[in-house]
């Protein structure tokens, strides 16, 4: 008997046959390439493991195997750092070895066997005809080496790191924790001067162009002087039409806590507030002998109306000139016959009158070499008032040039006069007017001028208005418009077309541009940072604005000021707490820093106090890293941003430099009640000896008539209030608090259980302050010898000028 055959117990099935069994591998590869599947053909998997032969030709470009597909390039670009609303054509993240020049390149990043994207170090370049375009570098690992972080953040070359390393060695001392010291300022200026001598006087190779810009060509100064028409103005017409016709007085409360007193402050009259801060209180010792023994020194000026602009003139003289512009009053707006039907935010306003005031602040040398301070024994002087017919003045910028030489006699003048500088003003008529401001050094009285015609008038296109301006160089003016475009004008154009036309126009945003800042060094001049009313901020290279642009979308309030920090090549701006897309648990405003090489990354450098309102003003200096910021509550803070920006060893947090925030002063404003009186009273003495001039006595009757008109204006119904322009500054009382100690900056959220003081359940409510209480403008002095001087303005019309530099060790 034959043995039985052993069979399997598994169920037998028919082997399936497919219709594409006869297709070869090439046909399958074509089908897979045209489909949306992420799978790869067998030949492609083998080619991934095969090394690629890359050779470099004589021109610096690269050749690679022909089998490399363009699809791999597209997939590799998807792993780069992306920003919203950006074109992805020919864009990639560049490594430290690349520079922003016209070098042809193309990146081809491979994927590893696990399917993850390769890093920057694994990228290879291929031949293409496109130009290098960069949107910045991706941030490194938090625990990377400090030397690698410096090269990655600030640049690989010696020129890129020179300013940063020099600032690190100079400005991280304990005495410069929040405000600059005169000793460190002197050392920094001496080092900058030595580097200038070593590298020559050529501004194109001078890394400290932001400290000492080149001289403006005399041909441009002569052109502006010859074209502008300035006529003398009568004293009565000056106050009736261009200045505050009522000349309102203001009361200020000054002094140490618990011993404050109220002092009257007349219109456009400077007052030394240091008299209220003597170090010794002796009734037998006259205050005049305590001039050099006071805690605080500075000047207060009552401008009478909201401060719109403050600008220091860049020049090297004993006297420092400050340009000031206030908001037009309702009386000035009513003087023009044409009715304002369209809002001036996006349409030109009628040319109602306004004024530019030029104040001269005497200075004196200090024991520190090369540093000057305010001469408190000489009062500031209102030397020039120039009346204009161009609406509200929104912004003012001095041409960043060295001191002008005395100009020749013009066709409209009969005597030779020196020139303070070239001043560009932006007004609500939508135009930019450029003037050469004369310096009446020998005139004992205020020189009143009426601007019949500007030296240069830059007009926008017919469907928009200019909203912001800045000087990129002494001859290049950059203007932002209400339609989101940026216009470039060349003041040294040899053709001198009338009216001047922009040589370049680029659309950066889709709506109103609120602020604009240009990088000051020569090799970074094409980089411009802008912010729009939508809250987004953008960095644009004007050489290729369509490709080289980084836009950071932020759901926050528009940034009013952007400051370029030359020490770290960064842009600093404010970030309100509503910038978070989720429900934020803290009501604080931050200062954020955006490096040029990592603009899409926001680094928070300071946190303002809770429930203090948004940041309304910001200012920085080209000579020191101390930043001033003001908020809606009227507080003024200062911090050294280098202590938060410079990298340190992340694995050793104990070696990190601590950052502090210093409250310089706190300003309170309260309106007078209905029973209050706006007249000047003699019940309280002034903090300093003063004499009442004959002019004030003659104007007392006119002042009383103005009070009756103000009382009538206050009785008007609320329906007549202009919602766009707002109301005029109301009569009130101001108070300054000083003497605060620096506090350590803590970016983390602190719950109410750990906060000092009483706990208040505010919920989701927002704190609302009086309009007159907010800080409106801050300005550091741009001159090296007076770099510690700062000017501050509030919406109540109060101006404070103080030397914040100190001699502490």
TrEMBL record:
Compositionally biased intervals (Polar residues): 672-694
Low complexity: bias regions: 71-82, 121-131
Subcellular location: Nucleus
GO cellular component terms, semicolon-separated: nucleus; transcription factor TFIIIC complex
Highest taxon listed in the record's lineage: Eukaryota
Region (Disordered): 1-133, 191-211, 672-720
Transmembrane segments: none
InterPro entries given in the database record: GTF3C_component, WD40/YVTN_repeat-like_dom_sf
Bias-annotated ranges (Acidic residues): 60-70, 695-712
Broad class of where this protein is predominantly found: nucleus
Listed Basic and acidic residues bias regions: 192-201
Biased segments, Basic residues type: 1-10
Keyword Isomerase: no
Key word Membrane present: no
GO annotation (BP), single: transcription by RNA polymerase III
Keyword line: Nucleus, Transcription
Name of protein: Uncharacterized protein
Originating organism: Exophiala oligosperma
